[in-house]
Amino acid sequence: MEIFTDGPTIHLSGDFDVRSTMEVRNAIYEHLLGHDEDVVIDLTDVTTIDKTALKVLAVATRQASRTGRRLTLRGCGPSVRRMLHLTHLIRLVEVERLPAAVG
Questions:
Q1: Taking a C-beta distance cutoff of 8 angstroms, is the pair 36, 70 a contact?
Q2: 13: which strand partners?
Q3: Strand, helix or coil at 23?
Q4: 73/78: higher pLDDT
Q5: What confidence tens digit (pLDDT) does each residue in 45-72 have?
Q6: Which of 67, 65, 9, 81 is nearest to 39 (CA)?
Q7: pLDDT greater than 80 at residue 38
């Protein structure tokens, strides 16, 4: 798992699973403690995700909300969206909507 921050956005790349949840969790909480802005988690380059990883995102969403901020997921591919629906976590996390295609 590779993690880098660009302003309010945390970019994740690679396998987001039980082996990387602690690393991602720490990055999110460091960001929440160090900034007073909403947080965007960019999952565009995440190749796989599991239930444990999604729970980390759900708990971080709740923590951000407690401090008056929002945590938004960006770049959720079909497999991530499917896991969000299967685990019913889609009700707890905010997923950025893609703009409608013009053409």
A1: no
A2: 2, 45
A3: helix
A4: 73
A5: 998 899 999 999 999 999 999 989 999 9
A6: 9
A7: yes
Q: Helix or strand or coil: residue 59?
A: helix
| Residue 48 C-alpha from the chain's centroid | 13
Q: How confident is the model at residue 53, as a pLDDT?
A: 94
Q: Is the entire prediction scored with pTM above 0.85?
A: yes
> What token pair was written down for 20?
């990387």
Per the document, the length of the chain is 103
Tell me the torsion sign for CA atoms 91, 41, 25, 29: negative
What CATH number belongs to 2-95?
Answer: 3.30.750.24
Q: What is the residue-wise DSSP string for 16-56?
A: ESTTTHHHHHHHHHHHHHH-SS-EEEEEEEEEEE-HHHHHH
* 72 phi and psi angles, rounded to 5 deg: -120, 135
